[in-house]
Amino acid sequence: MTANDPCLDMMSTTRKRHGIHATVRQSAGFTLIELLVVIAIIAVLASLLLPTLGKARNMATRASCLSNLHQIALGTTMYLSDNRNLMPWVPDDDLQLTPPVNSSGKRYNSMGAFMPLLDPYVSASKIWESPPARLEKTNNWRLHFASPWRENGQDFPQKGWANYISDKLAEKDTEQARYLRGRAPESCALKRGTSVAVEEWLMTPFFERGWWKDFSAQWAVGESVPPATGWSAHMGGRNQLYLDFHAEWVRRDIAR
Hints:
By secondary structure, this protein is α+β, with helices and mostly antiparallel strands. The chain has one domain. It is 36% helix and 13% strand. The chain contains 5 helices and 12 strands. It has a 3-stranded antiparallel β-sheet with strand order 1-2-7, with no helix packed on it. A 3-stranded antiparallel β-sheet has the order 8-11-12, with helices on one face. A two-stranded antiparallel ribbon has the order 3-6. The radius of gyration is 31 Å and the shape is elongated.
């Protein structure tokens, strides 16, 4: 064959075509099957990781809430030091009470009226809001937990809000052992026959399923009603602060 042989030209052209085809094949993307396999793998990994990520997020917000309670504990300790070891007192009319939760009329008090008393001892008004428990102010049954800053019987919502709640600061009967306003923590525990290490006094908002049957209607706001399985922002429990001023998470009668 000569240099100008047509056969050589055809072979060269064929090689070039094959080279082009190879290049095209090498630069081609995933096939549809390969893409579906990758998507399936990602979906499986996501299904395995999302619950773990959700738990990690819940643990982080729980820790942030506990940090708030620790700051409130420190502030309250300083308040006690300046006030003859007596807990803050506000008049009955300034209490911001939830609906009842049992037949004895037990209620919880949101902390808006106590904020002015403890404000000089805490870092900021935002620590009175539990981070994972969204502050509801209207059209939701959870607004019962929310209270604005209250001073001398007047509300000042621009100064801050609270949604931590207290059972002992809600008690109105001074003869009850659980009555805490203006009383020393040790005195309250002694009257209850326990110790300051086991008596809680401040906690994150929650609603137990045992309350639902008889009291859910009183908690309803329009068509917004507490869930029959109970509610909390803390995975079936609540963070709470004790009279010895340590804080921890405890399980309650709430579906996880």
